[in-house]
Design goal:
Elements (H helix, E strand, L loop, with lengths): L1 E10 L2 E11 L3 E6 L6 H9 L4 E8 L2 E2 L5 H7 L1 E4 L11 H8 L9 H7 L1 H4 L11 H13 L5 E5 L7 H16 L3 E6 L2 H4 L5 E6 L2 E7 H6 L1 H8 L11
Parallel strand pairs: 3-8, 3-9, 6-7, 7-8
Antiparallel strand pairs: 1-2, 1-4, 4-5, 9-10
Helix pairs in contact: 3-6
């Protein structure tokens, strides 16, 4: 559904991503792992059109979208759930859903979203800043779904959440993939995504250090952990 080919991108003329090749398939969760500063957020923002591409290509279902602006990519089916949720604090849940549901022919309607996330149905009149962290994350995902995405980009969706709530968010990502979406999920925590990931890519300083099948990673998680561990340098001899 989504492919990058030798993708390079960065800020103010500097490169953060260096030749990224990855594929996000329909009905799958592709997890991008890496420590802070590895380029995970830059990758998702580049795919969403918020960071310009220096070179390389981005293809959505075989169509080149590399030079499309962010709003055109959103209409084409790439939807970003940003790190930190970024909701409108003074708007209610119902108002968020109404604003997001602009494509009346989209597969996702407010009724379908509330059926998937019944907790939001109990909070329709609550302002976003009155919601718990988990409810805010569910609302951010609901808002993205209402744009009718084919590819859902989740940037650290469990950040700051209690373990049980984080598990619910990850289970939701798995359900959405099973329902037909291509999900690209960025996180620094391998343990959280190993149970649901169909594909894993590890980034280190803007480069792919490891890429492997999710089933293989579950059988040998040490391989993933090793890729996330910076190499130790031999101590220098004292003069």
């Amino acid at each position: 559904m989504l492919d990058t080919l030798s993708l390079r991108a960065g800020y103010h003329g500097g490169a953060v991503l260096h030749g990224i090749d990855l594929t996000v398939s329909r009905c799958s969760v592709h997890a991008v792992l890496g420590p802070n500063g590895a380029g995970k957020t830059t990758l998702l923002h580049t795919l969403a059109g918020l960071v310009p591409v220096g070179s390389g290509r981005i293809e959505l279902a075989g169509t080149d979208v590399t030079r499309l602006p962010a709003h055109h990519r959103a209409r084409a089916g790439i939807s970003l759930v940003p790190q930190g949720r970024r909701l409108f604090a003074s708007l209610t849940v119902a108002e968020h859903l109404k604003l997001a549901h602009r494509q009346r022919t989209a597969a996702w309607s407010p009724a379908r979203v509330l059926d998937l996330l019944p907790r939001l149905g109990e909070r329709l009149r609550h302002r976003a800043d009155r919601l718990s962290g988990g409810e805010q994350q569910m609302l951010a995902i609901a808002r993205a779904l209402l744009t009718g995405p084919r590819v859902l980009l989740l940037d650290e969706p469990t950040e700051g959440l209690a373990p049980a709530v984080a598990a619910d968010v990850l289970a939701l990502a798995g359900r959405l993939a099973a329902d037909g979406l291509a999900v690209l999920l960025a996180t620094p925590s391998p343990a959280s995504v190993l149970p649901i990931a169909d594909r894993i890519t590890v980034l280190g300083t803007g480069r792919i250090s490891t890429a492997l099948d999710g089933a293989a990673a579950r059988q040998d998680p040490a391989h993933v952990l090793a890729a996330l561990t910076p190499p130790r340098h031999a101590p220098q001899e004292q003069p």
